[in-house]
Amino acid sequence: MISMDKVTKQYDNGVTGIRDVTLEIQQGEFVYIVGPSGAGKSTFIKMLYHQLTPSSGDIKFNKFDFATMKPREVPMLRREMGIVFQDFKLLPRMTVFENVAYAMQVVEKEDDEIKPRVLQVLKEVGLEHKLRRFPSELSGGEQQRVAIARAIANKPTVLIADEPTGNLDPETSEGIMDILELINSQDTTVIMATHNRDVVNSRQHRVLEIAGGELVRDEEEGSYGIED
Q1: Are the C-beta atoms of residues 30 and 194 closer than 8 Å to each other?
Q2: Which residue of 14, 141, 142, 148 shows the fewest CB atoms closer than 10 Å?
Q3: Under a CB-based contact definition with an 8 Å cutoff, are residues 176 and 191 in contact?
Q4: Does 153 have pLDDT greater than 70?
């Protein structure tokens, strides 16, 4: 599904984001990306959805080969991905329903398909009763649930979550993890960058640890760090 072959990203200022990373992620896996701040996690995540391109090496995602992919193919790539950010990135003047529907409208889904799908994903994240609320009327955890609903509205094959529990309290984080694991149980690959040690240790999945730009650990059912 996703493969990286000796991938390096060096920025124009000479800083290396990641160095010589080789790995494969299969359909249906749940993968944590862990490591200290500045280790290269954000570079890794951004390269998955082609916001950044490798300085050397190759990335493949399903039928897409990043080395030969044309710019016009990038939107098609991203239609197969859902992306969730730490700061939610909801549109403040749109309701919960409209925020989720917008993700389907931009890929030109028909109106008669949009409404039932939006209601379905809002029910999955427990927010079907707040579809007319605006983001400012929601808690942080609720806003993150809306962001997840928006990310899965188009039934992506992979969900990329960049610190989805970073601004949330432990109880709310548990609720978000319940949702991510539910999505994963439906054969959606989940790739989650996180600093949340408690989540990683209590809900064990594959762990990729990045330090100094290098992949230093790839462990099935791993814990947050070797000291745990």
Answers
A1: no
A2: 14
A3: no
A4: yes
What would you report as the CA-atom Rg of the chain, rounded to the nearest whole angstrom?
18
Degrees to nearest 5, angle at CA 54 with 153 and 206: 55
Taking Cα atoms as reference points, which of 192, 148, 147, 139 lies closest to residue 168?
139
Indicate whether 227 pLDDT > 70: no
Per-residue pLDDT at 86: 84
Q: Which pLDDT does position 85 carry in this prediction?
A: 87
Share of the chain above pLDDT 70, in %: 99
Tell me the residue type at 182.
Answer: L
Quote the crossing angle between the two packed helices 140-152 and 170-185, to the nearest 10°.
Answer: 10
